[in-house]
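Structure first, sequence second, as always.
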């Protein structure tokens, strides 16, 4: 690294800040800072222009996004190298092949330095050097200056904020543990209490704060922390704190003859359906299988469970409930969760899994094994047998201390090495008290995940596929979360189609409205799909509740053979289902989001385009009509011609939808007069046949048409309508004209007389009998 490039100091753990040789640099607008942040989080690595666009704007970039990236990079170059000649390529921020690279010393980027210190701390922990580990953790925490990437827009910055915040909290907790072990509770008590208040659902942090307060003689404050957390959990989720925090509380109660918040401390009873948490519904058979596997491993028999479920189907909640008593049964539990970054960091999910098992008091043998695993985990590609052997040795050593349960949620995000290791661990379940539990979304997935999912049953794994909640279970689920009317409950049950995640979101939003949170939730669930699959799902959403396979090539412009893989992926992911000979989106709320999240002006144009395309492909009149009234679309020449050509058939076959289309069309001032007359007459017939008032439409046609037969028909409708209302009117003169001399007088005529007059009117026009 040249001196020119090493003089930079970049801060991302707080407001984004950069300086060169001690001089602060002005990075510019928030979007320009967002581009800089992406490059700084990937120092000395080529980042494509597409990555930058996605990082800053996500799936809906503006049309000018690529040009904006070019402008931002050019401006950043001037800031980073102010003395560079305008036409020189520069050496700090370089480009080539559509990629950009920021050349800086990685240790001068605080976020990179923070993660490096965490890795070093882990190795020191394995080596048993508590003093050095404490100093390293303190150095890592001192790098923080506030919320990471504060104020930076875009999905990349948001995901980094969440990830770095989680790492920060884990480091705070580990630093506090060491301080408590060294008898320095007074130095961390206030900070821990504040952190516990900021993160009220983080039980481990609350336990540390309770311990620190108790050791400083503030037992009442410690008890209050527990009470506040317990009350919050009961109110929000219907559950109580987990076994580790209850154990901390029990220890404080034992040391205090008159606890500030007395609570009976005893082993929890065996849970039945009635004693399950108030927010958990259904999954009886799946829970039985998990409880059985847990009892087996506690008795020394290993096993494996694989849980398949669509996004939001409740896999994590099932794991929480099924493993709630694992530690009380004497099991060690390690749990990790995959994410998109895990694919770039070999064995990171497994490390997270093992980090949640307390190895702080491990002997030198375990320490050496952890150290060897850390070295193996640094290999980016071509994992060797040594990696598998190191992991297996660590697992065998850990199982010697008691039954071990390893859980990985969202395994679909795991890297190839982690999947290979997970597969290899199945060799141990037959001879160790080891229970392996993985939860994954259905396909599309990597080839490695395909293979792993296929071979696990032969390796003794029990595969569970989570079905949607039944309507009865969905109603029970909603009843425990919100006060809803029966009608609202039924609407939400239909929209969510048994998906607990969607049930929760829909119960919390105004009736029938899309909120940013709901749109974000659906978008997140679709993010794992390819662009082509998402495009097919959007097309299905616009094609209606049911989508014929023959319509997809017409509206996408692609041959059916090119769409097969996308449709199969959506079916395998549980987002599309086959119904008769059609496809439909499984969850109506997903269709609603895909459809209504599109701006109205664009949405109506899509429906207009789809109508013409499927009509050209031979679609039935009902499907074309459905597109025209979905917008409703603008009535241009093609729309008005199509409506005029099919008006009579539509009026008879699909009267309700036809009436909506006719009403929309005749309201357009640019509509051809002849077409307006035809559609208005058809509308009058539809309304009249179904008992609705058609007098206004019929009157409009009667006073304007030159067709005597049509005029007579409209007048007859008006007369019948007035008879229904008990009014006196002449069917041949219902619009206020003088009655002809030969008009019959007297009481209001009956229907037979009206029909006679109608036929007379036709005869007078010379068209009777036609």
């Amino acid at each position: 690294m040249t001196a020119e490039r090493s003089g930079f100091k970049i801060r991302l753990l707080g407001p984004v800040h950069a300086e060169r040789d001690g001089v602060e640099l002005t990075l510019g607008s928030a979007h320009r800072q967002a581009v800089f942040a992406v490059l700084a989080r990937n120092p000395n690595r080529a980042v494509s222009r597409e990555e930058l666009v996605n990082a800053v704007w996500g799936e809906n970039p503006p049309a000018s996004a690529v040009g904006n990236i070019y402008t931002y990079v050019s401006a950043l170059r001037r800031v980073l190298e102010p003395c560079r000649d305008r036409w020189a390529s520069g050496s700090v921020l370089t480009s080539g092949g559509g990629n950009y690279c920021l050349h800086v010393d990685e240790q001068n980027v605080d976020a990179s330095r923070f993660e490096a210190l965490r890795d070093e701390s882990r190795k020191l922990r394995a080596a048993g050097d508590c003093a050095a580990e404490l100093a390293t953790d303190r150095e890592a925490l001192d790098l923080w200056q506030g919320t990471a990437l504060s104020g930076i827009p875009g999905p990349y910055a948001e995901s980094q904020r969440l990830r770095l915040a989680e790492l920060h909290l884990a480091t705070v907790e580990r630093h506090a543990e060491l301080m408590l072990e060294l008898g320095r509770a007074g130095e961390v008590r206030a900070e821990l209490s504040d952190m516990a208040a900021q993160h009220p659902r983080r039980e481990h942090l609350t336990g540390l704060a309770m311990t620190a307060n108790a050791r400083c003689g503030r037992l009442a404050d410690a008890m209050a922390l527990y009470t506040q957390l317990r009350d919050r959990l009961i109110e929000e989720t219907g559950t109580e704190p987990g076994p580790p925090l209850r154990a901390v509380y029990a220890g404080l109660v034992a040391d205090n003859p008159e606890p500030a918040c007395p609570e009976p401390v005893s082993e929890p009873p065996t849970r039945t359906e009635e004693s399950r948490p108030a927010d958990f519904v259904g999954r009886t058979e799946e829970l039985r299988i998990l409880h059985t596997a847990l009892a087996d491993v506690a008795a020394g028999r290993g096993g494996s469970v694989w849980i398949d479920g669509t996004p939001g189907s409740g896999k994590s909640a099932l794991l929480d409930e099924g493993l709630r008593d694992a530690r009380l049964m004497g099991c060690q539990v390690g749990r990790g969760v995959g994410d998109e970054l895990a694919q770039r960091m070999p064995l990171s999910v497994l490390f997270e899994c093992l980090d949640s098992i307390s190895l702080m008091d491990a002997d030198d043998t375990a320490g050496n094994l952890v150290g060897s695993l850390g070295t193996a985990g640094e290999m980016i590609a071509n994992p060797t047998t040594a990696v598998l052997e190191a992991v297996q040795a660590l697992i065998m050593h850990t199982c010697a201390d008691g039954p071990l349960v390893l859980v990985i949620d969202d395994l679909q995000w795991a890297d190839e090495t982690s999947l290979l290791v997970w597969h290899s661990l199945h060799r141990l379940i037959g001879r160790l008290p080891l229970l392996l539990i993985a939860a994954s979304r259905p396909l599309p997935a990597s080839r490695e995940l395909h293979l792993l999912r296929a071979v696990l049953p032969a390796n003794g794994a029990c595969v569970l596929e989570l079905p949607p909640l039944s309507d009865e279970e969905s109603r029970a689920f909603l009843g425990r979360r919100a006060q809803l009317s029966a009608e609202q409950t039924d609407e939400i049950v239909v929209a969510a189609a048994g998906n607990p995640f969607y049930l929760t979101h829909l119960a919390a939003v105004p009736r029938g409205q899309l909120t940013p949170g709901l749109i974000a939730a659906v978008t997140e669930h679709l993010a794992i799909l390819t662009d082509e699959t998402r495009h097919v799902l959007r097309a299905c959403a616009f094609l209606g509740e049911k989508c014929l396979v023959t319509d997809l090539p017409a509206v996408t412009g692609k041959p059916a053979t090119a769409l097969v893989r996308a449709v199969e992926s959506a079916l395998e992911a549980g987002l599309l289902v086959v119904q008769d000979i059609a496809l439909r989106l499984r969850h109506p709320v997903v269709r609603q989001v895909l459809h209504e999240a599109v701006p109205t002006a664009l949405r109506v144009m899509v429906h207009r385009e789809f109508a013409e395309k499927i009509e050209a492909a031979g679609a039935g009149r009902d499907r074309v009509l459905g597109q025209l009234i979905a917008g409703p679309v603008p009535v241009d020449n093609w729309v008005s011609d199509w409506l005029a050509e099919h008006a009579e058939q539509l009026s008879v076959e699909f009267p309700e939808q036809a009436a909506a289309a006719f009403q929309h069309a005749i309201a357009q001032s640019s509509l051809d007069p002849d077409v307006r007359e035809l559609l208005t007459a058809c509308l009058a017939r539809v309304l009249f046949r179904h008992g609705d008032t058609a007098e206004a439409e019929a009157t409009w046609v009667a006073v304007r048409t030159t067709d005597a037969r049509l005029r007579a028909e409209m007048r007859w409708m008006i007369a019948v309508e007035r008879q229904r209302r008990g009014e006196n009117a002449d069917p041949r003169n219902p619009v206020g004209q003088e009655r002809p001399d030969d008009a019959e007088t007297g009481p209001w005529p009956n229907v037979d007389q009206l029909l006679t007059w109608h036929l007379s009117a036709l005869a007078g026009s010379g068209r009777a009998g036609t």
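Margin note: The chain has a mean pLDDT of 80.
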